[in-house]
Each structure stands twice: as C-alpha cells, then as structure tokens.
Amino acid sequence: MMLSLLACFPTTPVPADTADTAADDTANDTADTEDTGEEEEILFTKYKVDDPSSVQGVYSSGSGVYLVSHGAEAWVGSASEDWDSIAIPAELAGLGLNDLWGAGKDDALELAIAADDGWVATYAAAAWTVWNIGSRDNLGISGNSTTDLVVVGDNGLAHFDGSAWTVEATPGVTMNDVWAYSTGAYAVGDEGAVYRRDADGNWSISDTGRDGNFHAVSGSGASDVWVGGDQGAILHWDGGDWETPETGTKNTINAVFVAEEDNVIAVGNTGTALKWGGKSWKLLTTDTNQNLYAVHGVSGANAWAAGDGGLVMQYKEE
Description:
Elements: E1 5-9, E2 44-48, E3 55-60, E4 65-69, E5 74-77, E6 83-86, E7 97-103, E8 110-115, E9 119-124, E10 127-132, E11 138-145, E12 148-153, E13 156-160, E14 165-169, E15 175-181, E16 184-189, E17 194-197, E18 203-205, E19 214-221, E20 224-229, E21 234-237, E22 242-243, E23 253-260, E24 263-268, E25 273-276, E26 281-283, E27 292-299, E28 302-307, E29 311-316
Antiparallel strand pairs: 1-6, 2-29, 3-4, 4-5, 5-6, 7-8, 8-9, 9-10, 11-12, 12-13, 13-14, 15-16, 16-17, 17-18, 19-20, 20-21, 21-22, 23-24, 24-25, 25-26, 27-28, 28-29
C-alpha cells in the first residue's frame, strides 16, 4: 500500500444489536417500516471502526474501502481484511473530516478530503498535499481528478485547477454536497439551494420548486442527477425537468450513490436506505437505527454505507 498505516481494528461483523441509537437532529425522522407479513431480506453486513464519532465519507475503489470521520480519523480496509488507520496530514489533526472523494485504486489511487476550518487535503502519487481555502468549514468535495476538484460548504463554491483554488460563487447559504462530472458540477445546500456549474466555471441556480434543505447530490451524467434532502425528498433531473418520485420515507436523506443510470442507492437518518431500479424507490432493511451519512460502491450491487458511532455497512446482492 502507498498509504502509511498506523493501527489495525478487526472487521468482525457486528451482530444485529438493539443498542443502536440515532443522533437525530430532525424531529420527524423515524424508523420507517412497512409490515408486509414477510420477513425482509437484510443485504447489509455491519462492521465497526474504532471511533465513536460519525463516519462522514466513504470511497470504495474495488480493492479497498476508504473512510473519514468527524473524529479526525481515516481508515482503509475491506470485508476480508482489518481496518487500518491512515496517517493523514498534521494540519487535519483534531478537525472534523466531512467528506471524501476518490478515484482509481492501488498505484493510481487518488483521494481528496474536505475538512473543517477551510482545509482540503489530496492524496496522489504516494503523497499528501494540503491547502486552506477559507476560515469556515468545507462540507462536500468531488472532482474528476486531484487537479480538478470542487469544494462546497460555508466558504462558498470553490474550484481547484491543479495550481490554485478559486472561490467561484458565494450562495449565501451553507452548501452541503457537490457532485462533479467531466463538463460541470451540481452543488446542493440549505433552503432548497441547487447550483449548476458549466464548463467555463460559471454557476447558475437550478429551480427545483422545493425549499427544504438538500444534503446529497450525485449522478451518472449531465442529464441524470439525483438530489436528496429533508423529509425523505429525492429529486431527479432528467435534462429537462426536476421530478420528485415518492420515496416511501420522511427521514432525511444524507447521501446518494449513482452506480449508473437507473441504479441508485440513497441513505439517511435512522438507518434509512433505499434502492432505485428505474421505476420506483424500494426501502431496504438495514437492521440499524443509526444515522447514515455516506454511501459509495463499485456497483449498485456492491456498495458501502457509513454513519454514527463508527458504523460501516456493506450492501451486497448475491
């Protein structure tokens, strides 16, 4: 491995437990269940990392799973190996690590971390590099490479071109997440904020007709974008209109992973997990009430979710 590893933690699956509690900041969030008379198949296996804080970011490379947490910790591991603590730059010590972006694997691995107090760290070519782009917190990060990144948060909407960071827009509300693709990006935030970036670095407002807070965005292309937020809202941009398919939950959606068009996983508060297969959202049974803040995978049939109390879960279809 290229990364400097410090310590090991076992990945023994955690049995179904009744001690899970949700640090839930949304009063209306409840564990939504539907009694169908049949036992729901649980496709999630639970693991733990040694950190009582929340795991906020996950990247699955196919040969390893990378995690960052509010407890200023980072790990790499897999379902068949131990979780190893990653030595991160000293500038991030004691800071909340709020999001993780990744690309490639093994010798071609690239990572980028959005952290509190304006810090950003990138990993490429076996080395870490750090920047500070503002005094306030960076909450979301995405890109096409470590030389083409977009960061959002309390500092506004900032782009890195490989040599310098530029704050390109200041929406006036907290921006919570961003998803970048080859010719642009989408960023989402509080009070219904959705911004679209074009290939020239210009940001414009995209009106969804909703005013709730948005926490998650991902897509497979410019005409296939998914946004998640308060009250179980998940919106879809098809290139012409924003659609609002019913999700079957009122729980806050915190993260979305789009494996490909019509193959989407979303996770949120009180263990909420949903799968989109092209026509409707299906609620998945996770066997936890912990809030989930991150999801990513190598496919829609093999993905990882993470959240409160160091909880990490693998979703795997047989």
